Structure formats: C-alpha cells, structure tokens
Q: What sequence folds into this?
C-alpha cells in the first residue's frame, strides 16, 4: 500500500503537478503532454513513471502510443487522507473555540 504522504511528495515537483493538471482535463499521450510543457518527452515519461508508481496515474498502450489518465483509486485515497486531516483540524478548532467560550463565560460571572 502506498502511503498518502508519498503521493503528496510526488506532487511536490512542479512539472509533475503540471502533468497532473493536464491529465485532470482528460487522458493524453506522452507526446500530447510534452507538447504542452517545456520539457522533453523522455523527461515527461520519467515524471509519469513516478506518478504511476505512486498510484496517481494509469496507462494504457494503444498501438505505439501510451495513453495516461488519472487513477481514480489513487486520487480517492489521496482525498480520503486530506479529508481526514481537515476533519481533525476542524475538530481541534471546535474544541478550542468551545474551551475559549466556556472560559470567557466563567470569567464574566
């Protein structure tokens, strides 16, 4: 199982984030992605390999072309992780607000 933090780290690279954004718009070939970036096709392939290893993209061979797309399962796992962080932050904020409110009420009496 891929740790969510490793998926996040894979997106720490600006070129990989751009590739991720391109694929968010729909499937694309390596050549199609490379034509939109200031990097070579081999560089795009290396970045795609990292994203694939982290479970963020899948690929399918169609003839001689390699078509990449976002992996819904990897994206869902990443979202679940981020949602859990957000939920924890909101619970902590609520608890702090309630403590502050209760403390303020006690001081006003």
A:
């Amino acid at each position: 199982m891929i740790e969510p933090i490793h998926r996040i780290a894979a997106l720490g690279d600006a070129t990989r984030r751009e590739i991720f954004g391109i694929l968010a718009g729909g499937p694309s070939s390596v050549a199609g992605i490379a034509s939109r970036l200031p990097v070579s096709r081999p560089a795009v392939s290396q970045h795609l390999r990292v994203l694939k290893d982290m479970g963020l993209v899948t690929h399918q061979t169609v003839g001689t072309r390699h078509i990449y797309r976002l992996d819904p399962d990897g994206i869902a796992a990443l979202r679940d992780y981020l949602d859990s962080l957000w939920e924890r932050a909101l619970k902590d904020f609520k608890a702090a607000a309630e403590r502050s409110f209760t403390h303020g009420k006690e001081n006003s009496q």
Notes: The chain has five helices and three strands. The two ends are 55 Å apart (CA to CA).
